[in-house]
User: Which sequence fits this backbone?
């Protein structure tokens, strides 16, 4: 692999001798696989490059706000503090007694470091594939109406519902729930066999649009974004989405089990109607 | 040689168009594995001229006429006045279009009209005209979804193969991608459309509505350069403009009162320059367009598309096209856009989309020809594509 250093890497990585493999060019950021602080610690480097098409003032403002928001949310959810950010200042530690601190430990990547001026953040590397890829993989293998694959998909969807429920119970809404923002990490015991390809832990990533909120409206909009993204990306599996909501409101592992979940799902119906009934002129 | 006449009037633009399709791509493509656009598509282009020999399927635009109902500055257009305008102008436009197209009534295969979405009274007025023509000429009626009309015309004129579509107008703001014979909505404005936000802002500053408020805001924005802080509301692939509108209206009032000497002159904190109307226009455009480009980029990343097609009245805006072009280039992709003949509501897009549907056997019976204000883009079965 020729090591021409990627010109988009910000300081200090542009002078580093470590390897940087560009994994994805998402809408917001570039994602590199690399190591951080020690060669044995695999890490994900997320760089938010300048968007030249945005007004520079707006661009700087947004980049900074999003990196900080994302880092704060991840730190709160993992329950871990971070030693130093850009400028040597500590990212805010979670307040004592704050509901949700550490509530998603193991379900979100840990933050290892960041610099909001330079526009980067490093988190732990999650092994596995995105839920989107996993579903596409299952789709291809599946014989139409194959009950076993449908059952496996349902297990995956239930896991999705439960992990979103956990998140909302921590007082965070993701803001950009799509199957590309969920990682399926295979359990240690799972073999590489095709039949096991939908089993594993689900982790949420990409918290750039996340906000801290307990409101039913925000949770419902979060679910709506996921519902629409799921339907548009996986039209063949669209009918199964109810499983996600069912698990969100009733699943054992879901933090939204019970009244809170029901309220959010009911609010989701209102949000759906709003979209449909909107007057569309011209 | 299929020829259709199309009538459009969902908002304040009354459009009549006559179009001619050289061949039916879907019938000859039935046996092909790949998409209908796979053989000899034209290179990426901006708007081509009326003769459209570069489009696919080959279409000829025989007439494309439009008359706009412009309301005085400081006001918007009301449904009943708009409907009255359309009633006054439709017969004249149809006669003119037929003359310009140089076709006989016998040559017309179907009468297409906008079934929705849009404003109730204007839609109804135009639908009455369409029904009348259909009965008078003894031709089938084809009801068309306005958004699908924009998309199909954009695809045809630009030759874009499978782009993410940004549809932005006074009434609609949607991010659309084609999937399994539907135009699926990936993201949209949750409250008001971006064009509506721009138009209502124009009213507060009494900016002229001639030819269109958005056009005048664009010209003024070119002279502005101070970016005032506005809220920025992107939620996943959706956007929200009502908060921005509320804020910019507040700022506009503040500007007016300081201009009239009722309060201190309003100066920018960093440079000390006085803030002008042009600066507010500039601020609003930069903010809302950045939001639109962002959700488009997000959709492109999610779907894996490299092309963007911008349709709808707000798509005429050169700054939006420029910003979108820079974003697409950064991703190794390209932007397709049309000029005001096709961006702004027009009859030819209705004729075009209608003829595509008619070619697949679609017709709208008289008793089904009512209009509907709420007609989702994804409700239409796009059976002329694979």
Assistant:
């Amino acid at each position: 692999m020729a090591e021409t250093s990627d010109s988009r890497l910000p300081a200090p990585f542009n002078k580093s001798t470590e390897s940087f493999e560009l994994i994805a060019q998402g809408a917001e950021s570039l994602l590199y696989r690399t190591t951080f602080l020690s060669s044995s610690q695999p890490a994900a480097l997320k760089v938010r490059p300048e968007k030249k098409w945005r007004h520079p003032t707006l661009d700087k403002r947004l980049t900074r706000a999003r990196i900080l928001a994302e880092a704060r949310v991840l730190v709160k959810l993992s329950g871990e503090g971070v030693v130093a950010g850009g400028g040597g200042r500590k990212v805010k530690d979670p307040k004592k007694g704050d509901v949700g601190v550490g509530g998603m430990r193991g379900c979100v990547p840990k933050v290892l470091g960041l610099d909001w001026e330079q526009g980067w953040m490093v988190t732990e590397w999650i092994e596995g594939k995105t839920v989107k890829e996993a579903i596409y993989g299952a789709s291809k293998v599946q014989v139409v109406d194959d009950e076993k694959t449908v059952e496996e998909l349902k297990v995956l969807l239930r896991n999705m519902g439960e992990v979103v429920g956990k998140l909302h119970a921590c007082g965070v809404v993701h803001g950009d729930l799509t199957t590309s923002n969920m990682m399926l990490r295979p359990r240690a015991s799972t073999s590489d066999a095709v039949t096991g390809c939908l089993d594993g832990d689900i982790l949420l990533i990409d918290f750039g649009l996340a906000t801290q909120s307990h409101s039913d409206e925000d949770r419902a909009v979060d679910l709506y974004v996921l519902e629409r993204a799921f339907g548009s990306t996986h039209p063949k599996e669209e009918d199964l989405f109810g499983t996600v909501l069912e698990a969100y409101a009733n699943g054992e592992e879901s933090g939204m089990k019970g009244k809170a979940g029901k309220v959010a799902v009911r609010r989701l119906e209102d949000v759906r109607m709003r979209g449909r009934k909107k007057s569309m002129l011209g | 040689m299929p020829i259709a006449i199309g009538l459009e009037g969902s908002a304040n633009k009354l459009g009549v168009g006559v179009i001619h399709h050289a061949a039916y791509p879907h019938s000859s493509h039935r046996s092909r594995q790949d998409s209908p656009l796979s053989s000899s598509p034209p290179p990426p282009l901006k708007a081509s001229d009326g003769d459209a020999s570069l489009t696919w399927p080959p279409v000829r635009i025989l007439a494309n006429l439009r008359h706009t109902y412009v309301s005085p500055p400081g006001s918007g257009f009301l449904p009943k006045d708009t409907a009255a305008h359309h009633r006054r102008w439709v017969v004249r436009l149809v006669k003119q279009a037929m003359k310009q197209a140089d076709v006989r009534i016998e040559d017309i295969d179907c009468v297409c009209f906008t079934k929705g979405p849009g404003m109730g009274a204007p839609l109804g007025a135009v639908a009455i005209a369409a029904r009348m023509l259909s009965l008078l000429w003894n031709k089938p009626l084809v009801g068309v979804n306005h958004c699908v009309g924009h998309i199909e015309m954009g695809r045809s004129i630009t030759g874009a193969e499978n782009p993410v579509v940004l549809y932005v107008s006074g009434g609609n703001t949607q991010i659309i991608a084609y999937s399994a014979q539907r135009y699926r909505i990936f993201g949209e404005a949750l409250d008001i459309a971006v064009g509506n936000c721009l138009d209502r802002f124009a009213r507060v500053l009494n900016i002229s509505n001639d030819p269109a408020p958005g056009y005048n805001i664009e010209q003024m924005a070119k002279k502005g350069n101070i970016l005032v802080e506005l809220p920025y509301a992107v939620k996943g692939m959706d956007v929200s403009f009502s908060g921005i509108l509320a804020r910019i209206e507040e700022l506009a009032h503040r500007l007016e009162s300081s201009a009239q000497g009722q309060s201190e002159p309003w100066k920018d904190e960093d440079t000390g320059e006085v803030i002008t109307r042009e600066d507010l226009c500039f601020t609003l455009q930069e903010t809302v367009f950045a939001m639109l480009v962002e959700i488009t980029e997000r959709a492109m990343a999610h779907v894996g598309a490299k092309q963007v097609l911008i349709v709808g009245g707000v798509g005429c805006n050169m700054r939006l096209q420029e910003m979108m072009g820079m974003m697409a280039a950064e991703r190794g992709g390209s932007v397709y856009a049309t000029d005001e003949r096709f961006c702004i509501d027009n009859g030819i897009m209705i004729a075009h989309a209608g003829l595509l549907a008619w070619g697949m056997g679609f017709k709208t019976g008289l008793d089904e020809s009512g209009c509907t204000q709420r007609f989702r883009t994804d409700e239409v079965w796009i059976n002329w594509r694979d």
User: Anything to note?
Assistant: The mean pLDDT of chain B is 89. Residues 146 and 220 of chain B are 30 Å apart (CA to CA). Chain B has two domains: 3-153+343-379, 160-338. Chain B touches chain A through 58 residues (CB under 8 Å).
